[in-house]
Amino acid sequence: MRDFKGKAAFITGGASGIGLGLARAFAEAGMKIALADIEGSALTGAVASLKASGTEAIGIECDVADPASYRRAADRALSAFGKVHLLCNNAGVARTGNIWEIAESDWEWTVGVNLLGMIHGLQIFVPHMKAHGEPSHIVSTSSMAGMRPSIAGGPYTATKYAMVGLSEVLANELAGSNIGVSVFCPNNIRSNMPNNGRNRPVRFGGPIDPAKDPHAAAHIATMSERNRGGMDPLEAGQRVKRGIENDRLFIFSHADERGIIADRFNRILSAFDDVTAFAPATTPRRSATAG
């Protein structure tokens, strides 16, 4: 997909951070923007900022973990724009702590937003894109935590790895079509993502109060400090746009993670060397009298 002008984008988690950076980058390219976000107040401000720059934009409150909420949001975007050509599966949350200590409800929350939110989007928009037949693209925001373990914790890492795998499967399934697929694996981007617990729905336990939750407080402090020196979200959005234009399956924000990823894959490859080293030269033949 290279021609963005006049086409429409649907961006989840679009009211701030990377989502709003994506919206601004694609708005600069002439796209119409539908922002879907669970945080109504931030959504209002984000839409107003896009409209002030001359962009045709709408905001839709949406809980991506709830399929009915997602469907209502998608229907609203399709009613406003007719067609959607770019799906940005960007909404994401994290819950920190040891794997065995994290409440089941927080696993459900993280899986619901990060993984099922992506799946809900694919189930709605892939058939839509195939039906309208115009060049389209799907980009899902994973993380460097989708390529190597993260201090953000088990649920976050598990879902971000899953998003990478699903994107690879999706790319194979859509090969030969005019729907491109990318997975964005950013590192530190300036955003309010570390404090995502403010938006945890009641059914998963309600908003997280860092003053009463040492894991949340520590995570917010650590990641906020890192993010202060991170990349501007608009630059991240521009990098994603360039990756889409070049039909890249993998899109990264920072080159300095290359060595860490190389080390991980070298450890994997060395395990295959172990298999070769310990494999018998020939498979023993079963004795005819055995048994």
Q: Mean pLDDT, as a whole number? A: 91
Number of helices: 8
Q: Write the CATH homologous superfamily.
A: NAD(P)-binding Rossmann-like Domain
Tally of individual domains: 1
Q: Which class of secondary structure composition applies to the elements?
A: alpha/beta
Sheet of most strands: 7 strands, parallel
Q: Tell me the span between the first and last alpha carbons.
A: 62 Å
Strand content: 5-15%
Number of strands: 7
CATH fold-level name: Rossmann fold
How do the helices and strands follow one another from N- to C-terminus? Answer: EHEHEHEHEHEHHEH
CATH class: Alpha Beta
Unreliable stretches covering 5 or more consecutive residues: none
- Strand order in the sheet with the most strands: 3-2-1-4-5-6-7
Which descriptor suits the 3D outline? globular
- Give the name of the CATH architecture: 3-Layer(aba) Sandwich
Helix content: 40-55%
Could you explain the architecture of this structure?
The chain has 291 residues and is an alpha/beta fold. The protein is globular, with a radius of gyration of 21 Å. A seven-stranded parallel beta sheet has the order 3-2-1-4-5-6-7, with helices on both faces. 47% of the residues lie in helices and 12% in strands. The model has no long low-confidence stretch (mean pLDDT 91).
